[in-house]
Amino acid sequence: MHLGESMRDCEYSQISTRSSTPMETPYKKRTPKKKKWESFPGRNKFYCDGRIMMAKQTGVFYLTLILILVTCGLFFTFDCPFLAQQLTPIIPVLGGALFLFVLGTLLRTSFSDPGVLPRATPDEAADLERQIDVANGTTGYRPPPRTKEVVINGQTVKLKYCFTCKIFRPPRASHCSLCDNCVERFDHHCPWVGNCVGRRNYRFFYMFILSLSFLTIFIFAFVITHIILSSYEKGFLSALKESPASVLEVVVCFFSVWSIVGLSGFHTYLISSNQTTNEDIKGSWSSKRGKDNYNPYSSGNIFTNCCVALCGPLPPSLIDRRGFIEADAPQMAPPTNGITMYGATQSQQSHMAAATPLLQQQRSEPVIITSSPENGTSLPALASLTLGGPCTSLPIGQPTPPTSTPSLSCHEAADMLMMHGHTLNHTHPLQEQAALHHYLTPEEVPSPPGMLHCGSPLGHSHTVQASFYNPASQDSLHEDSVRGLVKLSSV
Amino acid sequence: MQHTASLVTKVFIQRDYSEGTVCRFQTKFPTELDNRIERALLEQTVKTLNSYYVEAEKVGGQSYLEGCLACATAYIVFLCMETRYEKVLKKISGYIQEQNEKIYAPRGLLLTDPIERGMRLEISVFEDRGSSGSSPSSSMSSCGTAR
Questions:
Q1: Which residue has the higher pLDDT, A258 or A415?
Q2: Of the ranges A131-135, A395-399, B112-116, which is most confident?
Q3: B54 in contact with A at a CB cutoff of 8 Å?
Q4: Nearest CB to A459; choose among B2, B56, B97
C-alpha cells in the first residue's frame, strides 16, 4: 500500500507502471511456481514430484530389481507348491515375508535422500571466500586445496573445501562425482541400488543386503531341497526336467550368495567399527598410518557402534525437494562498489519489531531501478540498473556513478527483465503489483526509466528518483534510446 | 504495513566439529555483529540451539525403540509417525522464531533456521535504523516518508 501511495505521489510512476500493469498480469499468472527439485544442482533424477530421488544412472538398479523379482517369482510359482505340500506351508510364508522386506529396504535405499548437503548460497560462498582470503592474506589468487583442521576426540581430522558445493565438508562427508553432491557420512555410490549410500540410507542399505543374503540362502537351500526330494521319487534328471526354473534359481543364487553374503559380512565389520567404506578403503583410521591413528567416531564397543548405526536417530533431509522456490534475494550489492549509501538511507525506516514477516519477504522481488536519463547519461543511467534485496546501491538521482555500478547488476537486471515473473513469492498484494513492474520488457518501458521500484527491503528507494524524473518532459528520442539500451543490456 | 529494511550483510556461524559429526555451532562471536548485539545474548541462543540438537541426535532408549520398531515394520512406520528428530526440529523452529521476534528483529538481525541452510546458521544483518543518514534531498524524503 505504501508503495502504491508513494508511487502515486510521484508522477513518473503513473506513466511507467500503471500503463504496463495490465500487461504484466498475464506474465504473473502464467508462470507456475517451481519446486526445488526441478532446479536441483546435482546430477540426480527425481520422480513423483520430488518424492523419489535417485542417481542419474539407474540401469543396474533395474537389473537388481528384475533379478530379485524373477528369482522370487519363479521360486513361489514352481518350488513353493511342492514344498508347502511336502514339508510345511510356513516356507512360502517366510519366503514371502523375507521377499517383501528385501523389496521394501531396497526401494527405501534407492529412493531416499542419502544425506545430500545443499550447496552454499552465494552469500555464504562469498563469506567463506572472504574468510579464506583473510586467513591467507591474499585476494584474487586461489591458493592450493583449502583445508581446515579440527580435533575430534583427540584425533586431528582435515576438513576439505569442496569447490563444487562451496562449503567445507563436515567430517566423514565426501563429494560423489557421479551424483555431483556432497553427501554426509558418505559410504559409497552403489550402482546396484542406483543411489549413493550415506548417512540417511545406510541402515536401509545394510538391512537390504542382510535380508537379501538371508533370502538368497533361503531360496538356494529350499530349491536344492525341492530337487533332492523330487529326485527321490522320479530320479534326478526327471526332477530337473520337471522344474527347469529351479535350475535357473540355483544358478542365480549360487553366484549371488558369494557376493551378497561377502558384502554383508564386510558391512557388518564396518558397522561394528563405525567406519565408512570410504574410510576403510583409504585406510583413514588404519594403524598402518601411524601409531596414534585411531577412529575418533568409534565408541570402542561393538554393540554400541551397531546400535548407533542402525537404531540411531534418522536425520531429516536437508534438501527441501518439494518446497517451492522462493524469490531469493539476489546477491546483495557488494559494499565495495562505493555507491551503497547513495539515496538509500533516506528511506530506511526499519520497523524491525514487526519486520519478521517483511524480512521473510526480503527474499523478494528483485529490484530494478533505473535512473533518469535526463541527466544526460543515458547509457550509464541504464547501467545503473541495480538488482537486489538490499537495494543499497542506488545511483539514482546521482548524475554520476553509473560506471561504478557493477556490470554484474546490469546483467542481473537484464536477466530479470527477461525472466518475467519468474521468481516471485508475494504475500502482499502491493508487493505483487510492485513485483509486476520488475518485469517490464524493454518494449513495455513506455518511456525512460520505467522506474521499477525496489522490493520490500527498500520500499521507497524509488522515491529517490522522483525529484529527478520528469516524465512529462521525456520525448520519444529518449524513449527509444532507453529501449535500445535496455535491450543492449539484456544481451 | 510496509517496512523497509536493507540487507547489509549475512553472517554465518560455522559448525563446531570438535565433538564429532553431531550438529553443533561455534560460540565464537562474529566480529561483524560487534555493535549490533550483546555477546551474551548470541552465545545463549547458540548454546540453546546446540542443546536442542544434542537432544535430537541423542542415541538412547527412545531412539533405539524407534529404530527397532521401524526395522520390524520394514520402515513403513516412518510414513505415519513423526520421528523424534523431526519433533525436536519443530521445537527449534519455534525457538528461533521466538528469538527473532524478541531479541534479533529489534536489533536489525534475523536468524535463519539452520535446516533451511544445510545445518549452517545464517544471521542476516539489516541496516540499523539509527545509523541511516539524512536523505540526500528533502523532496525524496517527503516521498519516502509517506507511510
A1: A258
A2: B112-116
A3: no
A4: B2
Q: Do B129 and A3 make contact, defined as CB atoms within 8 angstroms?
A: no
Residue-wise pLDDT for A6-57, tens only, equals: 444 444 444 444 444 445 445 555 567 788 888 888 888 988 888 899 999 9
Q: Which of A213, A181, A215, A177 is nearest to A200 (CA)?
A: A181
Q: What is the pLDDT of residues A129-169, one digit of tens each?
A: 887 777 666 555 655 557 888 888 888 888 889 999 988 99
pLDDT tens profile A76-93: 998 898 889 888 999 999
Percent of chain A whose predicted confidence (pLDDT) is above 70:
58
CB-CB neighbours of B131 under 10 Å:
11
> Do the chains contact at A128 and B64, CB–CB below 8 Å?
no
Pull the grid cell for residue B87: 519433533
Asked if the structure places residue B141 within a domain, the reply is: no
Report if residue B79 sits inside a domain. Answer: yes
Q: Does B57 sit within 8 Å of A315, measured CB to CB?
A: yes
Number of domain units in chain B = 1
Domain membership of residue B85 (yes or no) is: yes
CA–CA distance, A414 with A464 (Å, rounded to integer) = 22
Cβ-based contacts under 8 A for chains A and B:
247
Q: Which residues of A are catalytic?
A: 190
Residues 449-478 of A with CB under 8 A from B: 456-460, 463-464, 466-467
Write the pLDDT tens digit of every residue in A328-344: 544 444 444 443 333 33
Please list every residue in chain B whose beta carbon sits closer than 8 Å to the beta carbon of residue A121: 117, 122
For A484, other C-beta atoms within 10 Å of its C-beta total: 14
Contacts of B52 in chain A (CB under 8 A): none
Domain that holds residue B69: 7-128
Cα pseudo-dihedral B98, B103, B107, B111, rounded to 10: -50
Residue B73 lies in a domain: yes
Count Cβ atoms within 10 A of the Cβ of residue B79 and give its class: 0-12 exposed, 13-18 middle, 19 or more buried. Answer: exposed
